[in-house]
Every structure is written in structure tokens, then in C-alpha cells.
Amino acid sequence: MLSQQDILEERNLSVTCKATPGNPSATTFYWTKVDNPGFRYNGSTLHLPNIQRTSSGTYRCTAENNYNNEEKGTDSQSMDVNVLYPPTIKTLSHQDIVEGRALLVTCQAVSGNPNSSAFYWTKEDNPGFRQNGSTLHIPNIQRTSSGTYRCTAENNYSIGEKGTHSQSMDVNVLYQPTIERRSLQVVNESEKFTITRYIVSNPLSDASWYNGTQLLKTQTSVKTASYTIENTTCTDTKNYTLVASNGIGNTVTARVELIVNCKILISLKPLTT
Hints:
Layout: E1 5-8, E2 13-16, E3 28-33, E4 36-42, E5 45-48, E6 57-66, E7 72-84, E8 88-89, E9 95-98, E10 103-106, E11 109-110, E12 118-123, E13 126-132, E14 135-138, E15 147-156, E16 162-179, E17 185-188, E18 193-202, E19 205-211, E20 214-222, E21 224-229, E22 238-245, E23 252-261
Parallel strand pairs: 1-7, 9-16, 17-23
Antiparallel strand pairs: 2-5, 3-4, 3-6, 6-7, 8-11, 10-14, 12-13, 12-15, 15-16, 16-18, 18-21, 19-20, 19-22, 22-23
């Protein structure tokens, strides 16, 4: 009696067929496969190295002896081979999502053997993150949730092991600009001075500097907005406006106050009598 063989894909299968000798006692063995008429493996031991899922099926071991009258005596036993393999997760696409919205991504997999699968999600930079189920749900997503997530599918083999497969997915949380706040800036007359402001946004922002309604300078895709005055004068004392936008949410503005310390000019007039 040959028992069913449960074996993990890519492992080596070796099964030896034994028989009680007949008369005459010289016995020849060979293996066939029920669903593959072209398969024949000579010898008592069936050896299938690096076995694949397509090798699942029913195999038959046949033992023969040759009678003196040129007839043959035969007996055979069948054996089921069940190749176990994990589910295969379908490719996950990159996710761009605006901050504050809900992220919903469902992980799908081609069934393994056995075909019952369990899913869970993890996050590469956060060992404590785990969400069970095939659907990753992050309501009111925040910028800190950007990163690489991994969906894992598992099935339980009958031999006490698990089959697993996983796919990663990048989540990129987009958010509108925020311009850093600073107190007014003071510079001495005739000095070269650069006004700078950091802009936090994803994607990077375009920045424009204004003096009232007059456009002074534009910059594209910057983290730091800057405007340089080569030679400051008293008339440069004013409130400048910085406008930043990146296509997400609202355009934001900031007032940037600059004070120029001016030299005191003393004019002497001759006294008249």
C-alpha cells in the first residue's frame, strides 16, 4: 500500500515501491502517471527532484516478473502526490493620496494549495504595525503614514508548515504647503541680504515673492524660498509677501517683514548773522 505524498514545491520527492517476490522472484519495477500517458520512470524508486505543482496527480507503481512461457505477472499500486505551494499575490500599484482622505487597498492573490488563504498587512518602517485582512484601510490618512506597506498571504500546509507570499506597495501622502513662521528680520543699510523661508509640502511647491502686487521672483519645486537684495536701502523696509502652491489643497501666503537700519545723515549749514 502506497500512502499519499504531501510535499512542498521545489523539494525532492523520493518514494520506493516494495513488493513481495512472486515466482520466479526476479522483479522489475516501473512508475507511470495516470494523467500523462508519456510518463514512465524505470526502477523501484520514483525520484522527482525540484518538484513542481504540475507534478501533482496519481502515480502507479507496477511490479513484473517474467514467466517461462513468455507471459508476465504484474501487480500495481497507485499513489497520490499532492504538491503544496503558497498563494501568489497580484502586483500592487503605487498609491498617491491626499492627506485627510481614506486609503482603501485590497490585496488579491491567486490561490495556492491548499486554496484557503489568510491575509495581513505590515509597514516596513514600523514593526508594530499589523492589519489583518486583505483590505488595508487607513481613514483620515496623515503624512506620517507615507511609506512602504507589505501584503502577505498565507496558507497552512497539512505537514504543519505555512506557505507565504508577499508584495510591497508604496504609499505617498500628498499635502498642501506650510510656510515656516519667523519674526521680522533686521539688516543694516548697504548690506547684501537674502530673505529665506522653509516650505513643507508634498510634492514640492512653487514659490513667488511679491512687493504689494509687484511680482519680484518665482521659484519652482523648492523646499526653501529665497529672495536676495544685493544692496539694501531704506526703501527696502517693507512687508513682502510669499505665495506657495503645489496643486494640493489651498495656495498659502505669508507676510515677511524686513527692516533696514538706515544711516543717520547730518547736514551742516553755515550760520548767518
